[in-house]
Amino acid sequence: MRTPIIAGNWKLNTTVGEAVTLTTALKALVAQERGVEIVVAPPFTALAAVSATIAGSNVCLAAQNVYWEESGAFTGEVSSTMLKDLGCEYVIVGHSERRQYFGETNESVNRKAKAALTLGLKPIICVGELLEEREADRTEGVIAAQVAGGIADLSTTDLLSCVIAYEPVWAIGTGRTATPAQAQEVHSIIRSLVALAASDDIADQIRIQYGGSVKPDNAAELLAKQDVDGALVGGASLDAASFAAIVKAAS
Ligand code: PEP
User: Fold this and answer.
1) Ligand 1: distance of its center to the CA of 55 in Å?
2) 99 and 107 in contact (C-beta within 8 Å)?
3) Average confidence (pLDDT) per 10 residues, the chain, 251 residues
4) Active-site residue numbers?
5) Helical H segments across the chain, by residue range
6) Predicted local distance difference test score (pLDDT) of residue 8
7) Predicted pLDDT at 6
8) Ligand 1 pocket by Cβ (under 6 Å)
9) How many A from CA of 73 to the centre of ligand 1?
10) What's the 152 CA to ligand 1 centre distance in angstroms?
11) Quick check: 191 and 166 in contact, CB under 8 A?
12) What is the pLDDT of residue 74?
């Protein structure tokens, strides 16, 4: 039985004050939820304040990115140690916006995932095809390369600490959601890829989130699919009531 995981990616949004207000509202709305893991990923600048706000609650903390080195002359970067120090449990790596705008590659995603795991942070490894790749019937090949690259050389134990987020790029922030059948098809491919790379047992246990315009009114049907173990939510996570409704759909 895989515990569903609903994570909110706040992207480049919220001042510290706004982040605390959003977190306080969310915490109250989801306080009674059980059987679902609830994660928020504020911008770096709000991590400390959100960490203090969620202390003792059923909401946990993620960062949106990490660098693989631990310290040194890497201006502007943030390490796993620093994120752990702030109370982060998860870190998102390889989000399509980072691949698209900041040159993230399968190799850098893998280096980040490994560094995070070494320090006890759980990576949420994002994969997803572009619209033109889907239209050219290349979805499976693209996902296979991203999954294989992202989890390369991870131990069995490390793999169990990873979450994979399937986020078709054409569905992110567009209001265009994959149908539950489209999501299930790719999630099942991802699970087979993990089975090939590790074992059936690991593949059965690893959690695979769907992301791409998940909203309160489409969450339940996506989450009902056999291989959909949660959601990575962008836009709707900036509204406490909407995000809480998605959490409830998973619990
Ligand atoms: C995301 O940022 O990971 C995402 C899925 O965004 P949205 O829900 O807004 O499509």
Assistant:
1) 26
2) no
3) 96 98 98 97 98 98 98 98 98 97 97 97 98 96 98 95 97 92 98 96 98 97 98 98 98 92
4) 95, 167
5) 16-30, 47-54, 80-85, 96-102, 106-118, 131-135, 139-151, 156-161, 180-197, 200-205, 216-223, 240-250
6) 98
7) 98
8) 9, 11, 167, 172-173, 211-214, 232-236
9) 32
10) 25
11) no
12) 98
For 211, phi then psi, to 5°, come to -140, 145
9 Cα nearest atom in ligand 1? 2
Angstrom distance (rounded) from CA 48 to CA 157: 29
Q: Residue 61: enclosing H or E segment and its boundaries?
A: strand 59-63
**pTM summary value:** 0.97
For residue 79, with 0-12 CB atoms within 10 Å meaning exposed, 13-18 middle and 19 or more buried, which class applies?
buried
Please name the amino acid found at residue 132.
Answer: E
pLDDT of residue 91: 98
How many Å is the Cα radius of gyration of the chain? Answer: 17
Q: Is 237 helix (H, G, I), strand (E, B) or coil?
A: helix
Could you name the CATH architecture of 5-250?
Alpha-Beta Barrel (3.20)
Q: Which candidate, 159, 95, 85, 74, places its Cα nearest to that of 119?
A: 85
Helix extents (H) in 40-95? 47-54, 80-85
| CA gap 26, 9 in Å, rounded | 14
Please tell me the distance from the alpha carbon of residue 39 to that of residue 24, in angstroms, as a whole number: 14
